């Protein structure tokens, strides 16, 4: 688990270095979601939730502030639970689950922004962020699916203790 958390933190750091700005504050690629989606499929929901939560808290302290932690928690936790539900009950494949995650992450962050800044005008960003979340969700889902196909046997071996 430590290696996966470290990988998520590295992705978080790398993402903070990438100038990705399309007129909407806070828009990111969501590279760290690759790790969360992979862990959800390889090791299950409890471990994926733990990795997501710890990554948000640790990266917030290392690269952000209290507001970034609040926004990330709102988006990350909503995103995780929706991805879990989409996988469990809708039986979506990895790309579909990732799209659900990208979409709902932005919804969670916007609603947290409404609460924190007490201004409903930030809701005008929602359509753009929802489209961006779907597009980046497809990209992250493709990457996660490609990685999953190459490493799923390692996860099985590590769970049986053969690695």
From TrEMBL:
UniProt-recorded name of the protein: Heptaprenyl diphosphate synthase component I
Organism: Shuttleworthella satelles DSM 14600
Annotated transmembrane regions: 32-54, 66-86, 122-147
A Pfam family of this chain: Hpre_diP_synt_I
Keywords: Membrane, Transmembrane, Transmembrane helix
InterPro entries xrefs: Hpre_diP_synt_I, Hpre_diP_synth_I
């Amino acid at each position: 688990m430590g290696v996966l958390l470290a990988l998520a933190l590295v992705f978080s750091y790398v993402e903070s270095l990438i100038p990705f700005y399309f007129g909407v504050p806070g828009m990111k690629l969501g590279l760290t979601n690759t790790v969360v989606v992979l862990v959800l499929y390889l090791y299950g929901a409890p471990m994926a939730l733990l990795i997501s939560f710890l990554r948000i808290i640790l990266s917030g302290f290392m690269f952000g502030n209290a507001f970034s932690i609040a926004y990330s928690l709102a988006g990350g936790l909503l995103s995780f639970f929706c991805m879990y539900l989409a996988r469990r009950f809708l039986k979506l494949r990895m790309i579909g689950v990732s799209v659900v995650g990208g979409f709902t992450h932005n919804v969670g962050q916007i609603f947290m922004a409404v609460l924190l800044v007490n201004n409903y005008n930030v809701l005008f960003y929602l359509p753009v962020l929802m489209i961006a979340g779907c597009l980046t969700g497809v990209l992250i889902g493709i990457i996660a699916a490609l990685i999953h196909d190459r490493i799923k046997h390692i996860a099985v071996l590590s769970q049986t203790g053969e690695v």
